[in-house]
Amino acid sequence: MAEVSAMAFRWTGDCLLLLDQRKLPHEEVWVACKTAEEVAEAIRSMVTRGAPLIGITAAFGVVLAAQQAKQKGSSIQTELEHASQVLLAARPTAVNLSWAVNRMMSVAREITDLSLDDFVARLEDEAIAIYREDCEANLCIGENGAALLPENCQVLTHCNTGALAVSDLGTALGVIKTAYRQGKVRFVWVDETRPFLQGSRLTAWELMKEGIPFKIIVDGAAAWVMRKGLVDAVIVGADRITRNGDVANKIGTYMLAVLAKNHGIPFYVAAPTSTIDISLPSGEHIPIEERDENEVLGWHGVRVAPENAHAFNPSFDVTPSELVTAIITEKGVASPPYQESIARLMQGE
Ligand code: MRU
Prior knowledge:
Layout: E1 4-5, E2 9-11, E3 16-19, E4 30-33, H1 36-44, H2 51-72, H3 76-88, H4 95-110, H5 116-146, E5 153-157, H6 172-181, E6 185-191, H7 198-210, E7 214-217, H8 222-227, E8 233-236, E9 240-242, E10 247-250, H9 253-262, E11 267-270, E12 276-277, H10 294-297, E13 298-299, E14 302-303, E15 316-319, E16 326-329, E17 332-334, H11 338-346
Parallel strand pairs: 5-6, 5-8, 6-7, 8-11, 9-12, 11-16
Antiparallel strand pairs: 1-2, 2-3, 3-4, 9-10, 10-15, 13-14, 16-17
Helix pairs in contact: 1-2, 1-3, 2-3, 2-4, 2-5, 3-4, 4-5, 5-6
């Protein structure tokens, strides 16, 4: 049994501990998951979140299902098939979830001649490999993205794409951290990211830890700070990128891309290739999660909107590829036309 320790999760060998991101930044509470069902519920309820981290945690959920089957003496393949369905149903938009679960399941389906102990150990190795590959991907994304930014720049970001959303460092926030260490970024505008406030709660928390100067703005202030000439680049993450370069990301991202275009500001998307869904031709095919209207109608159980008012709460939107200046991955940077550049990237050319 191996152990892994990251900012947002810990794997102890038989338990997945998740930092409860609903309680940050004021409380650091860890939630213990011992079954795949508990991991799926933690993903669904957003104890844990962020596309790459959802994939990593789901991979460990598959390991927990194998361990449970071993303990119960039940059929491991049946338990794994069931667990994978439960995990896949947790959240619909981030493709990293199905990418990681399918990778784990294809390993499991190929095992024919191992003892039960070795079977479980093989799955644990695969989950740890998914985690380690994501760490390495983030380092490359950081370098590839920082190279695109001008000296002494101010950037604007949305949602949380840092170490809390991945294995380590981050994607868009990883680019910002890397560019800051290189002396290229001098200031970060952080969209608060209504309604879950991943920006004001989580990105702000990470930037404070790094000592990077920033200010939080309400999402509606982005146009104005751009208009005032205070933004040199917008950089965001992604939950799913289709093969034509359309990008699903946190609700409000599309609005930022339109604004960036209007103000002549580059709009960058940073994501590992595990976020690219080559099976989908365009963004209109991406399932967009709709969350509970109460996330919009109030905050922390306190009703803000009038009684009987209703809300529409899509958690993500799709930015058309024509608004995206470049897609930064660990394998390199894709530029328009994306159909060709993404295909080349995925083939490792
Ligand atoms: O609903 P969330 O918090 O899981 O949404 C997260 C995002 O939209 C991120 O931008 C995306 O997953 C990339 S995280 C590196």
